[in-house]
Amino acid sequence: MHTDTERCVRAVRSKDARFDGWFFTAVLTTGIYCRPSCPVVPPKAENMVFHPSAAACQQAGFRACKRCRPDTSPGSPEWNQRADAVARAMRLIADGVVDREGVTGLAARLGYSTRQVERQLLAELGAGPLALARAQRAQTARLLIETTDLPMAEIAFAAGFSSVRTFNDTVREVYALTPGGLRARAPKDTSRTTPGVLSLRLPFRAPLNPDNLFGHLAATAVPGVEEWLPHSPKGVGGTPIGAYRRTLRLPYGHGVVALTPHPDHIACRLTLGDPRDLTVAISRCRRLLDLDADPVAVDEQLRADPVLAPLVDKAPGRRVPRTVDADEFAVRAVLGQQVSTAAARTHAARLVTAHGTPVDDPEGGLTHLFPSPEALAGLDPETLAMPRTRRTTFTTLVRRLADGDLHLGADSDWPETRAKLLALPGFGPWTADVIAMRALGDPDAFLPTDLGIRRAARELGLPSTPAALTARAAAWRPWRAYAVQYLWATDSHPINFLPV
Q1: Smallest Cα–Cα separation from 94: which of 75, 109, 72?
Q2: In this predicted model, what pLDDT tens digit does every residue of 243-277 receive, in sequence order?
Q3: For this structure, is 34 an active site residue?
Q4: Global pTM value
Q5: 65 is catalytic
Q6: To 10 degrees, the CA torsion angle through 437, 443, 447, 452?
């Protein structure tokens, strides 16, 4: 979008927050870059240039606006709706792969040479992988500086910098302030009394309907790994609301997160065993709640269908509830084949108790990390209370995941991975597509064989057979996963309602 100067100028002049994250405005006369919704008086059109990323602005010599804080914009929805190499690279960079494995590791995961990856990112984002990772490190550093009392040296290495000097230079260059100056400007939070707990605000593009998002997570929560706490500060609409909490398996340790919806942000409380996991934890929480989606574009296309229009108008902004761990969700999808939500939770809870990694949670009732594929690969199939054919499906899946023969993650190629899933014994279209939708993040995944979808289709006068419904849903592409959420919402199942 940044190449359409006229459209960008209109967005800046109207201070349209829908375009935050789509592009950044660099002002030639001040040397500052802003988000489109920056509250200051817009500069003259001839003094504005537009860049596709904050990293590109920084490489061009611009520093971040202290008023609108462009690094707190939602991420570009482009990377969540595409499966090409650039989109997969951006999802991996957000997951901290460059910091942990370098550009060589990033390229290896994508199956390209480092030169090809750098060329593609530079062409589309105006910055290479190192510059993009550097911009992300600067944002992580700012969060730690403003929300913790950690010494600056610890923050430097937790944010991924190789030295304190590089940390100081980058912060000064990006924010035009020293790290100490950033901390001095940060609002004092007198309520922060729990050591090691980070309180953050996760932005999103409005509207966001929390009902099916948090309702789904709460209704399917696995005891010990996830929970819904009814007591929490006031949330949506000023009414008392709870918090969804879960444990996180992270590269350097584990964490616990509590997420509460508010009208203009998601409140996020993170407890991390290692602060180096902050960037990854935030990225996975945003992915879990689909916070980088563009609900206006999604709803506009779905609303064009006269059958879906009333559903969209009634509760716009539905998101796709996703996951923080693709392997975990794949295992749970198999456990949920042809059984009720309650039965699937029971099966999963037994696995957690027997094979999960114990964790301490002083704030609630979380006890374990969900078992890794390696931990599940060695279990005795006879201990699984399920039909023999599904035991074979389960053991084959966890063995393939543990061996690395099947990879599920932010860098997965959606069509290729779906084909690999369908080749596994016991995997039909429903299992493969629900994994594609919620674990891989494919916004066009569709579930025409799902019982709830077929029931909704009959009630709305849509074709109810899978083939006919798939043909009818072609008009909803590339947002069929969001259409699934609106169709599910016609039912009275607990997944569709924010817990009371």
Answers
A1: 75
A2: 999 999 999 999 999 999 999 899 999 999 998 99
A3: yes
A4: 0.91
A5: no
A6: 90
